[in-house]
Amino acid sequence: MAARWIEKVTGDLGDKKRYKEYRSRITQLPDAYRHTALAIERYLMNIGPTGDGRSLIAMLHDLADLLEQSAAAGTPIRDLVGADPVDFVETFMENYDGGSWIRKERTRLADAIARAEKEEQP
Fold it and tell me: What is the model's pTM?
């Protein structure tokens, strides 16, 4: 009973535990990969899934997997994220549910223009 009440106030305790596991994994990466993970995490926290902590946690764990594998293989950061890191993260996010508020607004804008275009035609 108390755990449910606490989770209503603080959020899902399981998600918090998984987030801490992710952060622990990130701290063990070489500096360049750790800094990359933190930069991507910050971006995801700001524009990532809205209202869906599970999608965000899944993204972060998959990001940790990707960075751990890349570090082990010696893949340079730029080879991993490409010339445009924003494009890399946007493409990465497309593989998960819980779209960002930016995606919702882009869809809303496109739909509004399509409706206006239909109204314009005789």
Answer: 0.75
Domain residue limits, the chain? 2-120
| CATH code, residues 2-120 | 1.10.1900.10
Contacts of 95 (CB under 8 A, 6+ apart): none
Smallest CA-to-CA distance from 60 within 82, 87, 40 is with 40
Write the CA distances from 90 to 4, 35, 44, 109, 118, integer angstroms. Answer: 34, 18, 9, 18, 30
Condensed to tens digits (0 to 9), the pLDDT of residues 29-47 reads: 999 999 999 999 999 888 8
Model confidence at 78: pLDDT above 90 = yes
Other C-beta atoms within 10 Å of 25: how many? 18
Query: What does the pLDDT look like over 5-30, one tens digit per residue?
Result: 555 555 557 788 999 999 999 999 99
Contact 4, 12 (CB under 8 A): no
Q: Which residues contact 43 (CB under 8 A, 6 or more apart)?
A: 86, 89
